[in-house]
Amino acid sequence: MFKYFISILLLLSCLLSTAQGENEIKNDSLIYQQAYGLRAGIDLASLIRTGIDEDYTGFQILADYRMSKRLYVAGELGAESLDKTSERVDYKTSGSFIKAGVDYNFYQNWLDMDNMIYGGARLGYATMSQTLHRYDYNIDNNYFPVFTNVVDREFSGLNMIWLEIQFGFKVQVLNNLYLTANLQLKRRLSEKTPENFDNLYAPGFGRTFDTNDIGVGYSYGITYRIPFVRK
């Protein structure tokens, strides 16, 4: 009988130790903390283009704030200037833009990883001025010379609103330091155009005169997170 009693005690002790181990694992998973805070940085694509394209000058600030495990409030703020000379039209557009929306992280991180494969939506708004230097009349008949109209007129108070869908990733390379890249699909919603002419370029949107209200873009940059709280 005593042997059976000792055996039961050993079995209960094994069961209790196993249950305690499971509880410790569960408790560890419950108290694991993730950083919540503002992540901000710069778009390297616009800076590189500024350095290699003599017609273009621009910069863009990237930012997001974590609201829950997968949802982020996100946006971009920047300015662009394009002085373009082409076969049919010469113009210069300068202005600023802001884009605001949300990102959703589809990636399931392991333990202390903090990466994102995300989809996002933005509402964009740009305000700009456009200087039309000259343009050629569109003549389908090659027998007549092309007539060039020299304007050199500035149109101010122009704007554009668009909807933007983003797909991209954000990868943590060092503690709180991230590399980010995305592709953008844009749909123009409304705009204020020059008198008797069209907008040719909109900051944050891109070229407008040959896109049929659709625009595409991309960005890649570096950001840093300031961890306000841990949850």
General description of the model:
There is one protein chain. The strands form two sheets. The protein has an eight-stranded antiparallel β-barrel with strand order 1-2-3-4-5-6-7-10. Strands 8-9 form a two-stranded antiparallel ribbon. The chain is built from two helices and ten strands, in the order αβαβββββββββ. 17% of the residues lie in helices and 59% in strands. The longest helix has 30 residues, at 2-31. Mean pLDDT is 83; it is low at 1-6 and 8-29. With 231 residues, the chain is an alpha+beta fold.
Shape, principal axes of CA atoms: elongated
Kindly state the mean pLDDT as a whole number? 83
| CATH architecture call | Beta Barrel
Specify the CATH class. Mainly Beta
Unreliable parts:
1-6, 8-29
Strand content: over 45%
Short description:
The protein contains 2 helices and 10 strands.
Strand-helix topology:
Layout: H1 2-31, E1 35-43, H2 44-52, E2 56-66, E3 71-85, E4 89-105, E5 116-136, E6 148-174, E7 177-192, E8 201-202, E9 206-207, E10 214-230
Characteristics of this structure?
231 residues; alpha+beta; Porin; eight-stranded antiparallel β-barrel; 2 helices; 10 strands; elongated
